[in-house]
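// run 5 | inverse folding | seed 20
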């Protein structure tokens, strides 16, 4: 059995994940990401705002990644 499975029904996608494949925090983060994407589409906001958000996150990571790398090594 695969750790990640999905199927499509007439009106839904059904995803099944083994708990051993992903931690609860990562799973909740994934759900939050899906919810935000759903809300953006529902609000009919253009993809340019998503691109801008990704740029902001990328810029933030470039400025702050050394801090997290140092914490991971410590």
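// decoded
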């Amino acid at each position: 059995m695969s750790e990640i499975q999905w199927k499509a029904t007439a009106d839904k996608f059904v995803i099944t994940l083994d708990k051993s494949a992903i931690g609860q925090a990562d799973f909740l983060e994934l759900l939050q990401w899906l919810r935000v994407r759903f809300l953006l589409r529902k609000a009919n906001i253009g993809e340019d705002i998503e691109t801008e958000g990704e740029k902001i996150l990328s810029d933030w990571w470039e400025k702050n990644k050394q801090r997290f790398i140092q914490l991971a090594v410590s």
